Protein: o-succinylbenzoate synthase
Organism: Leclercia barmai
Amino acid sequence: MRSVQIYRWQIPMDAGVVLRERRLKTRDGLFVYLQHDGREGWGEISPLPGFSHESLEDAEAALRAWCIAWRDGEEPLLPGVASVDFGISCALAELAGLLPDAANYRAAPLCTGDPDELFAVLAAMPGEKVAKIKVGLYEAVRDGMVANLLLEAIPDLRLRLDANRAWTPLKAQQFAKYVNPAYRDRIAFLEEPCKTRADSLAFARETGIAIAWDESLREDDFEFAAEPGVRAVVIKPMLTGSLAKVHEQVNAAHALGLTAVISSSIESSLGLTQLARIAAQYTPDTVPGLDTLNLMQAQLLRTWPGNALPCLGREALEPLL
Ligand SMILES: O=C(O)CCC(=O)C1=CC=C[C@@H](O)[C@@H]1C(=O)O
Ligand SMILES: [Mg+2]
């Protein structure tokens, strides 16, 4: 006997979370819960406003149709909507025992402003020190000085930076000018420095600072290719689609010698812990980019080890079927 439920949820965000110039006051999403022969599987469907192509309403309609067909004994195809394909394929993988519990909870700490906060976190971090800083929000010169300061102060630190295409070639150069050339290879990568891919590639060539693609992966004309200066691709499964597609992209990156970084689309703790498991399975040698739980005010159903936020149970969810 198969049974299925869809739950809707909403989590208040921390006050200052701004995405693509919009304040994100709440994170809204769905869970799918599948049961079959005494086994169960959960999946999260939470399109990220400003990043996902689909709205939550579109996702819900596609999810409902799939769930009803599955409950009635069919083997429906995934609907082809990224967040829905991702959530359903996670639930099916849990149901089939194909998503092992082993997880990589060593997320790279994410810092949006104050480098002092990062010092404390990094001092307490065991093993390889990797952190991610958002750049492009303030003056490029300030970003360059902060990156340089951190690399100088913490000799075993490797930095990931993310400019979200904020810079013109000139601003990108202003940033680079303040990073001592001797430290530049400890910038593991700088995600999407410029508005166009061509400008980002030129920046990497001219400065010796390695870059990574993130936004580019979701563009129709993007192809995985080994290009000088490109070191990594950032894969956000909620924006990518099924687990099979995520795995395919990871394999394509690895085949070209690129690092593949599994990264958050600001999922709830349920989705984030699944991403930590996916990262352990597909990218065991890479620290994933999953340090986004503290942007929220609560966890849902499953807890991230060591996180102090309250964890809400099933009573906080609204059943839709
Ligand atoms: O990649 C990480 O380390 C954390 C996730 C992260 O930085 C992001 C998640 C979602 C939206 C973005 O603002 C941001 C990114 O641009 O990569
Ligand atoms: Mg990014």
User: Anything to note?
Assistant: The first strand starts at residue 2 and ends at 12.
